[in-house]
Design goal:
Blueprint lengths: L8 E4 L5 H12 L3 E6 L2 H9 L4 E5 L7 H13 L4 E4 L14 H29 L2 E6 L12 H21 L4 E8 L5 H14 L3 H10 L9 H11 L11 E4 L8
Parallel strand pairs: 1-2, 1-4, 2-3, 4-5, 5-6, 6-7
Length: 257
């Protein structure tokens, strides 16, 4: 299927590893001009060098000038941004009773405020040209809370609410806004979470992994490329009538319709 995004400019946040990198690679494979960004400039440039038409930008999106810096670099290299993929590292693992009051502000800043700043700067162009794609990489915790990922669940659920309202306001302008919810995908972040659970329970990491896999109807973790294929579709011309949705890519993990 031709996804119809050849020549489109895509900014993929936090894309030097994991799901962000896989999404950047999938969009590049479809002909998009991709901006790869991360805090480590050398890594961002290295990832971009492996893609057909890409720019690597070293930036801390939580810095006061972070969003403006990456979007300015994108415009200078490729022109206005047509596709924006929102992504970022998750907060520390903790149960809701373990959250410290001072953690809530930074959680909202990193998972909501910075994304609002990015969206605000690209929305004008998207609405004017009557075509745009905004996709957030979320978490299955948005659909079903995960006990030891309370901070992530709080922040990403707030982001989901913001994006749902945004989708309604810009739908008539040809701009789609969606969230893609990963389940257990084989990334460094998930491996770190499995290791932390193993440490807390005094068990072997392999046992924790197997137990988690057995809760998934497919009996396995997903691969980053499987997730990225869905992400690329939601950013495509073909997905023009999909908006305001939280799409799960979780192998059937969440037991809900």
């Amino acid at each position: 299927m031709d996804l119809g995004i050849e020549g489109k400019t895509a900014v993929v946040c936090a894309s030097t590893s994991g799901l962000g990198r896989a999404t950047a690679e999938a969009l590049a494979a479809e002909g998009a001009r991709v901006v790869v960004c991360g805090r480590r400039k050398e890594t961002a440039e290295s990832v971009a060098a492996g893609l057909p038409r890409a720019l690597g930008v070293g930036v801390d999106l939580l810095a006061p000038d972070g969003p403006e810096a990456v979007l300015s670099a994108a415009r200078s290299a490729f022109g206005p941004v047509d596709i924006l993929v929102l992504n970022g590292p998750g907060p520390r693992a903790a149960r809701v009773t373990e959250i410290l009051p001072e953690e809530l502000g930074p959680c909202v800043d990193s998972l909501v405020t910075v994304h609002h700043r990015l969206v605000s700067q690209v929305l004008g162009h998207m609405r004017a040209q009557r075509w745009g794609r905004i996709l957030a990489i979320g978490s299955s915790a948005v659909a079903a809370p995960i006990g030891d990922l309370a901070l992530s669940g709080i922040g990403r659920t707030a982001l989901a609410a913001y994006l749902k309202m945004l989708a309604t306001d810009v739908a008539a302008d040809g701009v789609t806004v969606n969230m893609l919810l990963p389940g257990r995908i084989s990334t460094d972040r998930v491996r770190q979470l499995d290791a932390a659970r193993a440490t807390r329970s005094g068990r072997d990491v392999a046992a924790v992994h197997q137990e988690s896999a057995e809760r998934i109807p497919m009996n396995r973790y997903g691969g980053p490329a499987e997730f990225a294929a869905v992400a690329a579709f939601l950013c495509s011309a073909s997905a023009s009538y999909v908006t305001g949705s939280a799409v799960r890519c979780d192998g059937g993990l969440v037991p809900a319709l």
